[in-house]
């Protein structure tokens, strides 16, 4: 913990912000994760050894069966190219994923889900990522951040009310980003205030980048609330689209990639949110948001790993069957180097991802930096793998029919 008394030239306001950040992020050695301790010159061997793997054998078998069934569907029925062209995931695809249990696999069995852990869930996301980035993002947005707040911070009544729907027929949306608020998660302009009788929160503001917002039956909304001490802090509320005052005024925005996912813009005008829809405690919403984002970073990384692995497989097949200068491309040193580099990327991406999911399954207290590394590393090296695949395949790699 920083000694704020000895910080010269730092305003009292900045000191207060630093203290709040340290409390939120955890700056004590016994609560810090593996990587945070590196910055303090410490190695917590007990977090690394033995390898963090806590998956029961019966779950491994169940996940194997689910992955096999899912891959058969993705290979033979899933309309990946049509989803990209039409910029929409058909409802029958969503229903099919619900029917297989994919969209409810981390929700506890008592609430209608499969009750699987994060490592198993990421295996499924990796599989989807091989075939359709849009579908991987939609699944991730629903389970990793959309309904994760209810799973982690909801009370018994809230879980019983909403999780069965989220496991079987409702998509969910995470409403954090705003027109003027992106990476500054604590800078919310959307605000809420309690009614005099304390029975409702009056919610006003606007959200953007709400993945699947126009298709969802539940929104997790972050809003600033003025607390008793006069300070404004973030509070997490659950809203449903039938509440008066909610306007999904833009269902989708056209994108260069992952075109099938819908990112909505939602306006909240004097929405009366019942106090029973408060998640956790008032003023503790930022911690809820950041905790959910940890899971989202991992699952997006899994989709990227799947895409990179598929790109490598396609490159190997292409280079073995494509002949130039009277020999296969796979016999040319330049191509060998690219494939070897892709294999190194995929190996490292796999290691980074599943070490981190092991931390999550083990319920380690602090994995914020690890999940951020996972997201950055797999984004960067996933792109490099796909770029190498395009170089190996040449002009054919740029054609949609080859799905690189």
In short:
This protein has 404 residues and is an alpha+beta fold.
What does this protein structure show overall?
The protein has 404 residues and is an alpha+beta fold. It has 3 domains: 57-171, Acyl-CoA dehydrogenase/oxidase, N-terminal domain (Butyryl-Coa Dehydrogenase, subunit A, domain 1, Orthogonal Bundle), CATH 1.10.540.10; 173-283, Butyryl-CoA Dehydrogenase, subunit A, domain 2 (Beta Barrel), CATH 2.40.110; 288-402, Butyryl-CoA Dehydrogenase, subunit A, domain 3 (Up-down Bundle), CATH 1.20.140.10. Helix content is 49%, strand content 16%. The protein has 13 helices and 10 strands. The strands form 2 sheets. Strands 1, 2, 3, 4, 5, 6, 7 and 8 form an 8-stranded mixed β-sheet that branches. Strands 9-10 form a two-stranded antiparallel sheet. A hairpin with a 5-residue loop joins strand 2 and strand 3. The longest helix is centred in the last third of the chain and has 37 residues, at 285-321. The relative contact order is 0.12. The mean pLDDT is 93.
Continuous helix count: 13
CATH topology of the largest domain: Butyryl-Coa Dehydrogenase, subunit A, domain 1
Sequence of secondary-structure elements: HHHHHHHHHHEEEEEEEEHEEHH
Main pleated-sheet profile: 8 strands, mixed
Shape: globular
Give the C-alpha Rg. 23 Å
Give start-end ranges of low-pLDDT stretches.
none
Distance between the termini: 47 Å
Class of the largest domain, according to the CATH hierarchy? Mainly Alpha
